[in-house]
Give the backbone structure.
Amino acid sequence: MIPKSFLQELDSLVVACSIAGLLKLQHIFRLTTDNYKLEVKVVKRIANATDANAFLRSLESRERESLKYVVLDCSADTARKIIVNHVQDIYMGRRNYHFLLTSLVMDEYLNSQVLEFGAINVTGFRILQPASLDFKTFVPAWQSLDPNRWPGAGTQYISAESALMYDVAKVILDAYSRLLKRNPDIFRNNFRRGEVYNNGTRGIDCRRAPVLPWEHGERITRIFKKTSIQGLTGNLSFNELGYRANFSIDVVEMTVTSKMVKIAEWSDHTNLTMVPPIRKRVPESQIIFENKTYIVTSILEEPYLMKKKTEPGVNLDGNESFEGYCKDLADLIADNLKFSYVLKLVNDSNYGGLDSNSSVGWNGMVGELISKVSRHPSLP
């Protein structure tokens, strides 16, 4: 669920969700008060990524310049497809969109990289604790498992759902180990000759009214409540009502390099706390431009880049054969950073678009940049 305090900065929301998402939205509305109101522009129930992208495209045609906070309550795979399709659609805006992924789908991308996530604002939640000793110990063992026998294993990442199931098993094992250590014969009278006994009676009648609790149920419940161990999702402990306690969820966002950084932390005892994001920057001393030659690709478009007009019989070669704003800007940057460059026109005279016939999926300047034919684009 989205913490209430996290939504206080948002003026309005666009929600694309499944049926379960509608129930979550209803819960959010219950949190609103006279002093805190949330405007939801539109809610769309989606069946797949195509539905969501068509919905956003129709919204874009009506309100192209408005700021849009888009809440996606769907699976990790569907969320990825929606964002990738959005970024690759040249008719859709980017700067005025902010995607908020609910649930714990960001854990799916912990050790994978979706390049398109770096091109747009994406915020989400993460419960896995990759820096913990338990997680670091678990990953090598998880990677060594046969994925044919253990679906999802054999890789360096684990989904939040699988991690929570692992932690549940760890809690059960810990609780029963402590119970049997205290009283090794506690279940001796409950299992006899392949039969289960409860309070001296064979079998358990699930239809009895009122229900007859298992004779050890209360003791086992007390054992569970005293659990205090570490798991893949952090601290595993419970309060007197049996709810999980003293745990936290990270609020993360994607950087321009499609890396995940923590910007806030929510816990059941401190609520939302903002955290200064730690972004790794290359020290200036390590950025060396001198004595290097870069290929800069561009396209003819007045007044940004033009072929220089010359007197009859005068031939100009290389960079000197061009003029315009892009050429002047490239000269200033090269002079300031002490490097050389070669200005070339894009081979197919295109800015860049999706191209199924291209080996890199794009044509034009974008395609040359991806395929490293050029190092930098110079866009009019």
Residues 1-11 have pLDDT under 50 and may be disordered. Residues 141 and 154 are 9 Å apart (CA to CA). Residues 160-182 form the longest helix (23 residues). The longest strand covers residues 260-267.
